Backbone:
């Protein structure tokens, strides 16, 4: 029991030299409390872009744009075909080929387009509005 | 996609396919039933449609005005359900922690 259990605890402390100048502690940086108000309260790391991206929202945007374009195209086509064409263009503009209009050109296709196109346009615009609403809700939750 | 969204997607797909089938059937039935030529009917005269498999496209026939029926309504209803499922999935989407 002659040796101490923790020899470092029983080491002799060197006397403080009062003659050596003690360097002053570094000055604390003055922090304006108003400057850090908008910092996030939690220290969780921001999720990566891949995680934050909502794939269904992208699908909704794409569907909205495609449906709107298809609906508007159908409306224009229905209006054009309703003008009682004397012939129908069947080949490209480089080598035009025409044929006599059939019953599909007069009755079937214009009625299909006129029946579906307004609804497709409305669905496309509705999808774009829905996607914008989801974006707005997510934005307000984040803020 | 959540379970209600999945159910909505399946129902929307079934209704959309049903609407497409009704539309296709309506068009083919209409084209397969041309009318005989009549000078007093007031209808346009066409060559017989080649969509229904007629080999002779020089036959002149008449067709009654086309009526689409319930096909477009069913088709649009299915598309509405499909879009509703996508909206639901986008609104309730929760990113998985493992993805990042």
Residues:
């Amino acid at each position: 029991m002659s040796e101490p259990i923790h020899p470092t605890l029983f080491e002799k402390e060197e006397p403080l030299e009062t003659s050596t100048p003690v360097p002053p502690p570094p000055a604390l940086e003055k922090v304006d409390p108003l400057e850090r108000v908008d910092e996030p309260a939690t220290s969780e790391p921001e999720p990566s872009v891949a995680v934050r991206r909502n794939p269904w929202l992208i699908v909704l945007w794409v569907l909205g744009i495609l449906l709107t374009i298809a609906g508007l195209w159908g409306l224009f086509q229905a209006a054009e075909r309703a003008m009682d064409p004397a012939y129908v263009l069947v080949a490209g503009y480089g080598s035009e080929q025409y044929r006599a209009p059939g019953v599909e050109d007069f009755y079937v296709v214009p009625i299909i387009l006129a029946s579906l196109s307004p609804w497709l346009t409305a669905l496309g615009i509705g999808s774009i509005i829905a996607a914008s609403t989801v974006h707005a809700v997510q934005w307000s939750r984040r803020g | 996609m959540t379970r209600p969204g999945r159910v909505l997607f399946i129902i929307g797909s079934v209704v959309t396919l049903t609407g497409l089938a009704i539309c296709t059937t309506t068009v083919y039935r209409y084209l397969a039933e041309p009318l005989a030529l009549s000078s007093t009917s007031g209808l346009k005269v066409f060559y017989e449609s080649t969509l229904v498999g007629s080999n002779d496209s020089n036959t002149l026939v008449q067709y009654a005005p086309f009526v689409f029926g319930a096909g477009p309504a069913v088709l649009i209803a299915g598309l509405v359900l499909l879009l509703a499922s996508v909206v639901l999935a986008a609104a309730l989407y929760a990113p998985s922690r493992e993805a990042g």
About this structure: The interface with chain B takes residues 47-48, 50-52, 54-57, 59-60, 63, 100-104, 106-108, 111-112, 115-116, 119-120, 123, 126-127, 130-131, 134, 137 of chain A (CB under 8 Å). Residues 89 and 95 of chain A are 10 Å apart (CA to CA).
